[in-house]
Amino acid sequence: MAKVTVSINELVCKGCGLCARACPKNVLELSKTKLNAKGYHPAEVARPEDCIGCASCARTCPDVAIRIERD
Question: Each residue of 25-35: pLDDT tens digit?
Answer without folding.
Answer: 999 999 999 99
